[in-house]
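Supplementary Methods S3. Input chains for the assembly prediction are listed below.
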Amino acid sequence: MQELSVEHLLGIKYLKPNDIDVIFKTADHFKEVINRPIKKVPSLRDITIANLFFENSTRTKLSFELAEKRLSADVINFSAGQSSVKKGETLIDTVNNILSMKVDIVVMRHGNVGAGVFLSKHVNAKIINAGDGTHEHPTQALLDSYSIREKLGTVKGKKIVIVGDVLHSRVALSNIFALKLQGATVKVCGPTTLIPKYISSLGVEVETNLKKALEWCDVANVLRVQHERMDIKYFPSTREYTQLFGINQEILDNLGKKIVIMHPGPINRGVEITSDVADSSESIILNQVENGVAVRMAVIYLLAQQIKR
Amino acid sequence: MSRKTLLNSKDIEIILHRLACQLIENHNDFSNTVLIGLQPRGTFLAERLAELLKTAYNIKELELGLLDITFYRDDFRRKDKPLAAETTQMNFLIEDKKVVIIDDVLFSGRSIRAALTAIQSYGRPKSIELLVLIDRRFSRHLPIQPNYRGRQVDAINEEKVLVTWKKTHKKDAVYIESKA
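Predicted structure tokens for the full assembly:
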């Protein structure tokens, strides 16, 4: 019951529904732990974890580091910007050097799709994918589903719309897998240029009218416009994007019902979402951040459980 | 598998009253004391004692917590089966409080060691005492002894002490089970 069916967390598509149940039940316990006066347990005091971030990250890296420290693991951090990667060292060489320091778990973010899978085949450590290019970001999807479950009681049967830059978003893909696995109905909404052509093959409908999408849904998961991943212009101007796909309080007030607003962060305030919506009572953005630590503690704890001494 | 009854429901009833009286001797009205049952099995004993203290001995304000120690155990990754956590319900701080840890059977002492660490997450208590229904002598791995014990038992390591409760098994009883 309390065991994962996978050896690594490389993506949601490798998980079974029971894995998500196990992670969430374990996260419930860690949520209680992180609300204690002393928010630390000694479970992983003989485990060493390397956070390898070949791409920039603030909240994911901080969230993982906090989760690891609250489990009492030893943590080493690596950022590609200040490393020998700049001198031409390969991924395998970098990781093998780090593993020679007796690392048990590697948390890796990398710009290339499939970097985590590649690593899992070549190194003897548990791998947690903290984002591989535009592919998957499994812990973000897990914490998003966990936050929906916390807010609405269940994910099953809920209608969720993912709004914005789906094409460049690893959060969107992992969320689609996670939400479908738990029995939710998912739509995506955004400019057609930012919706991947294969999306319908994942059992997801496309809606290009934001108002209709919001009227339909229980939850709107709003994505950041990822200018840094855009090699061409996907929409005429930021102003036009905001007018067509930006969510403001007026749009929500006109719905005649309450919907839950989520955002994986960081927010482009005033672009995909206005400040009053981001800070409103309908927004669970800060709950997502808090739940991120508990869910990552659960994932690390469950994978560490498989490491026998 | 052979099973021998060590305590029947009448014995347990008498022991519970004696333990309740011993607690009152040391903790008076429990205004500065909290009872903490260890998950999973110590909670049944803790709940029964708390109920008895309230109904039979008129203790009005009694704080009872249920503590899970899974994340503090020293056998994480050493067992064949993964350790599953139970719910912790500690809706109070124990800063400067007298704490009574309650468990059904004291065996190696490792669970109590874990509980002593876990309790520190809720503050610095004034003192910590240990109450157990069954104290298995000569089986300790750590220098831990109870302040209150229901019954002391000499059981060999291959034997298992099984406690059943009315609430969960329809019968209050303590058995010694052996494979022979």
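The longest helix of chain A spans residues 285-304. Chain A has a mean pLDDT of 91.
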